[in-house]
Amino acid sequence: MTTLTHHTLPNGLTVLLKEAHSAPVISWWLAYRVGSRNEPTGRTGISHWVEHMMFKGTEQFPAGHLDREIDRAGGQWNAFTSMDATKYFETLPAHKIDIAMRAEADRMTNAIFDPEETESERTVIISERQGAENQPTFWLQEEVRGAAFRVHGYHHEIIGDETDLRTMSRDDLFHHYRLHYRPANAAAIAVGAFDTAEMLAKIEQLYGSIPGKREAMDLFVRQEPEQMGERRVFVERPGKTAFFEICHRAPAATGDDWLKLKVLDAILSGSSGASDNKTSRLYQALVKTEIAAGVGASLTPTIDPYLYAILVTLREGRTPEEAETAMLAEFARIQADGVSEAELNKARKQTKAAFAYSTESVTEQAFYLAQSFILGDVTWFDRYAERLMAVSAEDVLEVAQRYLLPKNRVVGILQPTDAEAEA
To answer: Residue 222: CB partners within 8 Å, gap ≥ 6?
Structure first.
């Protein structure tokens, strides 16, 4: 595969290009450095709502036009909002990629935000949040996040708080769009069957004239103060299943500790993407002993320190206290004894393989380049496997001792009320 090339246009737009001629397709991405992390109280969920409005059309590309064009070309397109970013993509046959490039250049500056469409989408997004609320773990995880982050924007769900979704105006959304959808706050990424010099020339033609200062903009973000001790939340919801969640503060993705913690996670939960986690320590301690029906973990690569979360689905008749005792015993064992070389090698290889499988298509490769841009290190994707395989047993021991501590911990318990689940 051709080496990644990195360019910056005079207006500040970052350009990341990677040729891949294995198939005659190109994946084209526009990534913006704005997500729920950058939303103040009263505007929670605004980044996600703006993402929805970007599909409502421009004068050049009216609503529905791109759906038809991309479908006719045999391509796909979508977008999503995360805590740190908003990303848009189109994957198309290589000779049709101009559709995507022109459309994204146009909606960077010319999205309409029709008032009636805005109000219609308000109903859609509130319904989306209410649909998520049908899952009991949504309530648990929202409470845990709120307890973990008192100040930082990571404290609220990406979809936002319902009270804000009901009160934000069309002008609020349009201001958010105008403020953040600018070249210096964005990256254009292409992976696929193209000539790099020709692709760069096209990008300069389409995007170079978009006004903007080269300097990166200051984004709204509030730094979280240090946690001074363990925090606990209790949730009661209709249902019959109890859940137990334990979270520890995790480092930012660009720090050396993040990948070390990723290997520790693979040892504890097997959640590196391997299809079978039955040999993981927490499966053995919780599921094999019939305390839990299932256990899983998540470690999200984020700009700022976030959370390493482990969620346990309890078996009927078993208690959160039993799960907590078993889990803390595993933490203590790994902090005292570390891990064997055999266990380490298996975890590294499984995690590397899972990452490799997740980057097989040009769409997935472009996603990871977009993510690298958002994290502030455009080589993050390219260096992932190499850095992962350099993690040692001593590294795993160190991060277990540094992060799996009570003062870094938020514990959440969801107790079912044994009532019929609400519709």
So the answer is: 151, 152, 153
Longest dimension (CA), the chain: 65
pLDDT tens track for 277-289 = 888 999 999 999 9
- Give the range of the structural domain holding residue 284, as residue numbers without chain letter: 231-416
* Number of domains making up the chain: 2
CA–CA distance, 58 with 285 (Å, rounded to integer): 55
How far, in Å, are 21, 183, 197, 216 from residue 12 at the CA level? 28, 6, 19, 7
The sign one gets for the Cα dihedral 290, 293, 299, 305 is negative
Do 252 and 300 contact (CB within 8 A), yes or no? no
- Tell me if the pTM is above 0.90: yes
Q: Is the pLDDT at 420 greater than 60, yes or no?
A: no
Number of residues in the chain = 423
Mean pLDDT of the chain: 95
Answer yes or no: do 246 and 134 share one domain.
no
Per-residue exposure over 66-100, b if at least 16 CB sit within 10 Å of its own CB, e if not:
beebbeebebebebebbbbbbbbbbbbeeebbebb
Q: Which residues of 228-258 are buried (b: 16+ CB within 10 A; e: fewer)?
A: eeebebebebebeebbbbbbbbbbebeeebb
- 420 versus 32: the higher-pLDDT residue is 32
Q: Hey, how many other C-beta atoms are within 10 angstroms of the C-beta on 135?
A: 12
